[in-house]
Write a structure and sequence with these properties.
This protein is mainly α. 87% of the residues lie in helices and 0% in strands.
Length: 416
């Protein structure tokens, strides 16, 4: 029964992910046709700033909140207190992020956009960050309850509403509406979330108790959350340094070869990552003190990965040359080889994630951060050592080696 539920969850979340990818391709295509490279470039800058600020501002509370809520009895006063703390903290953290963006809006306009955007557009970007954090609070509750279908609806409905509203602004106001387009995506999530709150009043029972109690809950969640945030920043920094090194050592074309393979690689992984966040992690957190159930759940999940991800990985490895030529062009010959290596590495990555969630469910944030840093260092070091021999293709084998090292480290940590 557990395997059937996990498979159903994967199909639902995976289907929603495919729908969202399709919507994303359509909206980006529309902007590209209407505005060309300039519009896509400005949109990319807005999204980069927005994502970076969100990753810092949420302090990892969404992930640690899922773990904490999953370990409480749904409907209990303590559950309501924690849920209220998550909503209040993300609301306040979003306000703080918005205020900081408003204070330094001129600097953002000058140094990042080269004065090509107005200050009200930066303010719209700040509002999108604030609304996105509120959306995370809604999603956290849905994940803790493992409401997989509701999570899929939240994602798809939010994307449809936000994209429709955003494209309306683009058609009406042109290039100046790109900031409103980014804001619209966050508004879509809030509208979809509000709809789900009205339909699922039984799980949204947030209680805003006294400040001291909420502060205690926040401190407990932020300890794990900050470790998660730092681990994400470590990988982001590693990727930035690797792209910079590749550009200096082999040129911007080599960066393009690496980027093309990377984007295709993470597209497949995203299908499983979202399913893990929606179903596997909350379930694991709720039973983490029962070793027998944990072992059974992890084994079932790894078997599911072998059954579902295995054929997809083999397909990507076998048809990598055709896929890269179709989606990009035959000039991306190095990307074809790198993608094949990345897909081998993704097999180990999915198994590593199955083990990593055990560490997160136990609340060992520092250990999780250490494991992620080891992976980042290994990935970058092996790539650098082999770059003179293989050029940018060295990143492929390095990716596989890094995850083999990580899976050995995780296995040792879990046994200890």
């Amino acid at each position: 029964m557990s395997k059937i539920k996990s498979t159903k969850a994967f199909l639902i979340i995976g289907g929603a992910q495919i729908v969202n990818m399709t919507i994303s391709i359509i909206r980006v295509k529309v902007i590209a046709v209407l505005m060309g490279p300039f519009g896509i470039g400005i949109l990319g800058l807005f999204n980069s700033i927005r994502d970076s600020v969100i990753n810092i501002a949420h302090l990892g509370i969404p992930n640690s909140g899922v773990k904490t809520l999953s370990q409480e009895n749904s409907g209990s006063p303590r559950f309501a207190e924690i849920q209220g703390t998550i909503f209040a903290s993300l609301f306040i953290q979003g306000v703080i992020a918005l205020l900081i963006i408003l204070i330094i809006d001129q600097q953002i306009s000058n140094y990042i956009f080269d004065n090509k955007v107005e200050r009200w557009q930066i303010a719209a970007l700040g509002l999108s960050v604030w609304l996105a954090l509120i959306g995370f609070a809604i999603l956290t509750t849905l994940q803790a309850h493992r409401r997989v279908l509701a999570i899929a609806k939240f994602s798809v409905y939010g994307s449809l509403i936000g994209s429709s509203l955003g494209l309306f602004f683009i058609f009406a106001y042109g290039e100046k509406a790109i900031a409103l387009f980014v804001l619209s995506l966050a508004i879509g999530q809030i509208i979809a979330g509000g709809f789900l709150i009205l339909k699922s009043k039984d799980i949204f029972i947030a209680s805003f108790t006294d400040f001291r109690t909420m502060l205690q809950h926040w401190i407990k969640m932020s300890r794990l959350g900050i470790s998660l945030m730092l681990s994400g920043m470590a990988l982001t920094l590693t990727m930035l340094l690797m792209r910079s090194y590749i550009q200096k050592a082999a040129g911007i074309d080599a960066v393009g070869q690496f980027e093309a393979a990377w984007v295709l690689s993470i597209t497949l992984v995203a299908l499983f990552l979202n399913t893990m966040a929606a179903d596997y992690f909350p379930k694991l957190s709720s039973i983490i003190n029962d070793n027998l159930k944990v072992h059974e759940t992890v084994n079932n999940h790894i078997q599911l990965i072998l059954v579902l991800a295995g054929p997809l990985i083999i397909f990507f490895i076998g048809f990598a040359p055709w896929l890269v030529s179709l989606l990009y062009s035959p000039e991306f010959s190095d990307s074809q080889v790198i993608l094949q290596w990345f897909m081998i590495g993704n097999f180990f990555k999915l198994i590593c994630l199955s083990f990593s969630y055990i560490i997160l469910a136990k609340g060992h944030g520092r250990l999780y951060l250490l494991v992620e840093i080891v992976f980042s260092l290994c990935f970058a070091t092996v790539s650098w050592l082999q770059f003179n021999n293989l050029s940018v293709i060295a990143t492929g084998p390095a990716y596989v080696v890094a995850y083999i090292v990580q899976i050995c480290l995780l296995y040792y940590c879990i046994l200890k």
